[in-house]
Design brief:
heterodimer; A: alpha/beta; Spore Coat Polysaccharide Biosynthesis Protein SpsA, Chain A; UDP N-Acetylglucosamine Acyltransferase, domain 1; seven-stranded mixed β-sheet; 7 helices; 30% strand; B: 112 residues; alpha/beta; five-stranded mixed β-sheet; 4 helices; 26% strand; Mannose-1P_guanyltransferase (chain A)
Chain lengths: 396, 112
Amino acid sequence: MKAMILAAGKGTRVRPITNEMPKPMIPILRKPVMESIVELLRAHSVREIVVNTSHLAPVIENYFRDGNQLGVHIAYSYEGYMTDDGLEGKALGSAGGMKRIQEFSGFFDETFIVLCGDAWIDLDISAALRQHRENGGIATIILQEVPHEEVHKYGVVKLNEQQRIVQFQEKPKPEEAVSNLINTGIYIFEPEIFNYIPSGVEYDIGGQLFPALVSAGERFFGVKMDFQWVDIGSVPDVWAATRKALLGEIEGFRMPGKQVRPGVWTGINVSIDWNMVKIKPPVYIGSSTKVEAGSKIIGPCMIGANCLVEAGAEISECLISDYTRIGNMATLDNKLIFGGDCISPDGTVLNVSETQVRWLVSDMRRVLNPSDIHDMMLFNNMLSFYGELAEEAEAA
Amino acid sequence: MKLSTHVQGEFTIAVIGETRMDAAVAPELKHQISQLLNDGATRIVLDLSAVTFMDSSSLGALVSLLKMVGNRGDLIIAGSKGIVADLFKLTRMDRVFRMADSVDAALGAVAA
């Protein structure tokens, strides 16, 4: 079997993270979800994978290169143009992207699987393929059962007794939903599917191709599979996925680094005086990160590589990306720190440069300027003054 | 900078009418509130419920106003929300200022 990974989306619901990183590259505890997908494909003997890229394509292409390091062959189908201002993506839609590859080389000359690059999964691909072959249709959609109140977030599918798909609903209201079986964005196709995809136009699998199959009376199927599906389609999803991984709630997820004490994992070359730092597990601390004495880290918490957590900093239930300096006065509670943005799980964004608090949180390689130092001293003085007052009041 | 004030009991309620409190409004903010202090107001509730953005310079202006008030009175921050509330918490200034969810809550808390 061959595979295609859909990686051309702009990831608008995951901004600002996707301003610098395409969605498939968003890591769950250091590993991009797309890397986990490639590993899963390989475990099921899928060795030839084409990836359609567009938004921030080089980030994906420079990471996976030709796939050799993961034991697979990876090729890219770039959707867009090079202009004087650089690359400008123009995505063709999921089905349009497939068609482009097929017209280029006829790559899909056998049964193939198509997956979105935006979820961590442990689908038994071999079992799904067997069911696809038994049913014998032109296409199979991998379905999952969700609680009825969650159907509004997904594409809903209705099957008949033979598992044939008879109806589609895009994000229906729970009271109008025809079932609680949802499209997971994982599909198995036969090459004949290309008869239904027009060439040279934007065309979507869920929104256009499947409705076209239904109206043409084509035989295609849905199979309900039981597997873990950890979506990272939005900022709250990214945070939820990271928490789950840290809490050990994703079965089979391999923690990065080594466990140095119960519930605490680190990379290598980490500088921490364990007796002088307060840590509540589960916590992951990346390689080459320094955690100064007198700081506090409350899990579930993930701190990236090459970070500096200064003495006095308090970090509670956060996801901190690489090369972040957390100043001594900072209190971070339920935040994602990403490329100079301090993001709340509900998606509100405090940009540390716009709010001029780079004296407190910034890239750890950045040199503080006089205005940073002025602010730092002003706020530090205030805090120590009022801190002492509070202590006096307590004593009295 | 848009600022409206009214007196309620022994409190002066100052309502910020700007959505953005950045370096452009910080000096004016400092000037207007210190004017209130000079005019004899000692217990001020600053209503930030209309503010959707604040930066370090405006927060710094509030800090220096708090210094001015010293132990002669109060400067209570009311109604901060979203990234404004985040900024207070991030910089620990929520431990320096008296914070209240709303003006009513501020007055209630002080009365209690």
